[in-house]
Amino acid sequence: MKGATRLIFPLILLLLCEVNGQRRSRPPKKRPTPPPSEPVEPTELPPPLPPGPPSVFPDCPRECFCPPDFPSALYCDSRNLRKVPFIPSRIHYVYLQNNFIDKISEESFKNATELRWINLDNNRIGSIDSRVLEKLDSLIFLYLERNHLKEIPGYLPPSLEQLRLSRNRINRIPDNVFNKLDHLILLDLHHNELNDADFKKNTFRGLKNLMQLNLAHNRLHKMPPGVPKAVHQLFLDENQIDNVPNNYFKDFPNLAFLRLSYNKLSDKGLPRNSFNLTNLLVLHLAHNNLSSIPYISQKLEHLYLNDNSIEKINGTQICPTSLISFQEPSSDLDNVPRLRYLRLDGNNLKPPIPLDLMMCFRLLQSVVF
Ligand SMILES: *[C@@H]1O[C@H](CO)[C@@H](O)[C@H](O)[C@H]1NC(C)=O
Ligand SMILES: *[C@@H]1O[C@H](CO)[C@@H](O)[C@H](O)[C@H]1NC(C)=O
Ligand SMILES: *[C@@H]1O[C@H](CO)[C@@H](O)[C@H](O)[C@H]1NC(C)=O
Ligand SMILES: *[C@@H]1O[C@H](CO)[C@@H](O)[C@H](O)[C@H]1NC(C)=O
Predict the structure, then answer these.
(1) Which residues pair with 133 in a beta bridge?
(2) Is the pLDDT of residue 40 over 80?
(3) For residue 29, is pLDDT > 70?
(4) Measured from the CB, is residue 322 less than 6 Å from ligand 4?
(5) Per the omega criterion (within 30 degrees of 0), is the bond before 54 cis?
(6) Sign of CA dihedral 327, 332, 334, 338
(7) By the number of CB atoms within 10 A of the CB, which of 71, 113, 275, 330 ranks highest?
(8) Cα dihedral across residues 73, 79, 83, 86: positive or negative
(9) Residue 112 CA, ligand 1 centroid: distance in Å
């Protein structure tokens, strides 16, 4: 158990950092040069590494490492493995990332009924036998980033809390695949080949507790329907979205982080009140084609509007609270808009920054103009 706490603690930290990372102001960044095309497949895979020294655990697979002080963990990562070794029943955490595994056999997982955490990132898995997953009824984390999956695996265990499937080739979401996953907190599908037809009204049904949904870098032209209402973080950047339906975000009481940068939004497709949401803290709208600034709520802290087509800005109009109230000596700080970081560079604005903007957003620490 001591081992388990040790492992889970950094994870919580990691999650916190992710959230904090999004709140911290970032220095202005140029769009990175496009990533190099996919590496060419080597014709010959490197041979599996030779087995390590004998383990204190007689059931430890020879190609893996079984830490003596952490009997529930099995490290088989970065060993040039072609298949998953037999996983002993005492194992809760198995690390199989950075190998050349292309198939998951039922046999390997036959006794591993206590598994809580499987990391298979960066392998060559194209599909997973449903009989493997459905038996893992303690599984909490399933990491399958950077594989060759074409669809979301079926029969995912209802215990699952995090499902990471980014950087695959997923272009299909089987019906009802998320139906029973009411413990799922994080669903990461970024950098796949999903398009509008993959998302139906019921696609996300069942994800009652989902907090983070990442659909960035796919092939969406429309906002996906049926996004779970509980989400705190919704990432849709790097798609082709040109339109946000009226009231799309109306019933998202928790939404705090929203990313829609690198899409095709213009004023025409965007009701001006779309993002005037009570709990929104961070809004990314950079690299679109907006001409005016959408209305924001008093609580918003970070707004990215760089690289759009904004030509003028009227601080009085976009101010979420009435300007006049601040001029009264009794005005209390509770009503001051919370905006601290604003990016407007890469538009058609000319300095100086309008005075009414500064008078409204008195907590602004940084404006990139
Ligand atoms: C799998 O578990 C069964 C029942 O606990 C046990 O008898 C068997 O030896 C295990 N198999 C292996 C290969 O460890
Ligand atoms: C933003 O929403 C609030 C609360 O719903 C509302 O009072 C306010 O008028 C809205 N702002 C604009 C500019 O529509
Ligand atoms: C951006 O929007 C303007 C009209 O507001 C339009 O004339 C222009 O073609 C659009 N640019 C792109 C790249 O879509
Ligand atoms: C900004 O908008 C307000 C209210 O709509 C208007 O009274 C004011 O003249 C505008 N300011 C400029 C500089 O256009």
Answers:
(1) none
(2) no
(3) no
(4) no
(5) no
(6) positive
(7) 275
(8) negative
(9) 10
